[in-house]
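Course assignment 3, question 2. Fill in each field.
Student: A.L.
Task: Predict the tertiary structure for the chain below.
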Amino acid sequence: METKVANPLSLKELTVKIQDLSVLPHVVFKVLELTASGEASAAEIEKTIVVDPGFSGKVLVLANSASFGLPRKVSSIREAAGFLGFRNLRNVALTVGAYDLFVGKTDKESLRRREWWRHSIDTAVGARWLAAKTLRVPADEAYTCGLLHQIGKTLIDRYAGADYERVMEMTRMGIPDYVAERDLYGYDHSEVAAAACEKWGLPEVLQSALRYTQPAHPADTAGNHRACLALASWLSHHAKGDFGAPPMWAAEIMGFDIEALTGLTQTCAEVLSDNEQRF
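Answer field:
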């Protein structure tokens, strides 16, 4: 196995650096703050988003995509908020804001980050579907978990001080990505994602869920969220032909045994295929 990279940033140093950088647009944090209160009006949401014309344009494009199934095209953020609801609008804003994290400076960086982004979207859709099927997690929260669960990879890739390609080489040898990351850096992408969300002031349940590479503790109030994310991530990998062992701890929490997973994988693959054609 590869030896640890020379002088990588510690997890604390990495999260401090993330905090000091404008990793997500300020408008995303403001939207999160407003939608969390449940008391904001559509006019307030609109006012926050339209401050950034480029961002608001991207939000409208995504809101009008077939993925969200609006009854008609919308031409304003206020209309989008009215049709989508605050929670779905929050996820649209997060999707737009997070996308830029997955853009690389080189072709090699862009290629792997686009793969992470595609997996993030697939997992978000799969987690939302799984949450609706089991009623164990709010569907919008499951979507958010899926959307953000790969940000740790791109943050390590950008700021940890070593080429992430070494991790990719180890995964091609059959070593799980989080194992390779821990060996090379001393932490994995799920820990980075959780730490980043803590710095950004996102809910504790999200921070806990993003540690999906580790089984949930029985006392963890976010255990269902973490299990939903872990199982959805595995399902989305499986749909792309990666037939690694399922996280049975997550399947059990979500109410599935090994036999039930066979039908689950086929149905989820169909859901993801349909979404990929429409997204």
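Instructor remarks: The radius of gyration is 18 Å. The mean pLDDT is 85.
Grade: pending
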